[in-house]
Amino acid sequence: MPEQHSSNRKSFEADNQNEGVRLQKVLAQAGFGSRRKCEEIITDGRVEVDGELITELGTRVDPKRQKILVDGSRIHIDYRHVTLALNKPRKVLSTMSDPKGRWTLRDIIGDKYERVFHMGRLDYDSEGLILMTDDGELSQHVMHPKYEVAKTYIATVEGKLSGNVCRRLVRTGVKLDDGWVKLDKCSILDQNREYTLVRVVLHSGRNRIVRRIFGSIGFPVRRLIRTQIGPIKLGELKSGSYRVLSPTEVKSLEKEVGL
Fold it and tell me: Is 123 noted as a catalytic residue in this protein?
């Protein structure tokens, strides 16, 4: 697999030359998850540096000179990250494991990529594109509201949706129980007396947001497929399968989120 060197490596090395690197950033680079997840690992008392238990988030370290352990095992930083595009079917959980034995993302990717984790979720009944990576820095940026990564969905809604309603959702939006939200784009692709097929683009990452928007105006969503995240498209990827993003795709995603 080709190496996917990113601009965050330069940032990482620059920090390393200037009074060390934040410990949570080192853990993220080593593939232990998002920055927030790595912060939890530290505060839970699972990290040792040169034999000393570290629980303070402000700690800076030199990973080239210091011995860093997580759960008693030494970490290894590898800049050769992998990022996956996965087409999630319905009835699959956007998690890596489930105590009830339901199908998860791990059942699709298997054990080949042990350290990858999902960047965002789709609800149980929704389908389409999920991005996965072992690059904690990239994951943090993709999921952070600050970078406003656009997401595209194809929704099948009950009823005959009018162009005026679509335009209102873009211009004015709707008020939900957790505040106002607007669509960036809304276009009708096809319709009959019973259903309307609509493409929507929005930046919000709120839970079940597309279903909630259309449900609030009397057009329940019967099928929902996410087809694009930032510059990455679902394309012809079959349901229940995945592919490795090319270095060019990874760079375009990094550029989208300011890396």
Answer: yes
